[in-house]
Amino acid sequence: MPRSSREKSAETRANIIETAYQLFLEHGYSAASMRMISQQAGVTVGAIYNHLSTKEEIWKEVILTKHPYHEILPLLVSAEGDSVAEAVRSAARVMVQELFKRPELFNLMFIEIVEFQAKHAADLLQEIFPRLGELQRMFFEKQGKLRNIPAPVLLRSFTGLFMSYYITGIFARNFEGMATDESTLDQFVDLYLYGILEGSDTPVESST
Fold first, then answer.
1. Cα–Cα distance, 60 to 38 (Å, whole number)
2. What is the distance, to the nearest Å, from the Cα of residue 112 to the centroid of all Cα atoms in its chain?
3. Percentage of the chain with pLDDT > 90?
4. What mean pLDDT do residues 83-91 have?
């Protein structure tokens, strides 16, 4: 069956975004010109503007479509474990494993922060935030009493801590004492669950 004009248009648009994504990773945002994108995508510059009005709009689409939350969130929601602690440990491992499968994410984050001062982060959060409710419900349905912490803070602290584990793991991967192994990840999980101060809630040892 021949493709409709709408299908062809969608394929062309997706090809432009994918091509731009690869060029941004290879050359950076500023050095990847519209002409380079058009040549690699096999379309004219005018054809690009028929689908995406500016180079920045192309970048915005790259961020929204290539961010790994599409793959990570469903995995987090299905984290194993009957208790909150078990689910957090499982979810953290899943998140970190998926992030390290996507080393290019670091480059995308760097471009967004340096080139755009994170101005498109709000658009990304608008895409992600409604789906975080699924993760919130997963945690609250598990066994264990959670402290009275607002859900946005709970979720932000979770994603922030384990995103930092990923980022510092890349920065310091060759630095002695900065391992990114399972034992270190367990220590990060314990920090998230129990904090850094000794007390009755602090486990004697990490569960594995």
1. 17
2. 13
3. 44
4. 92
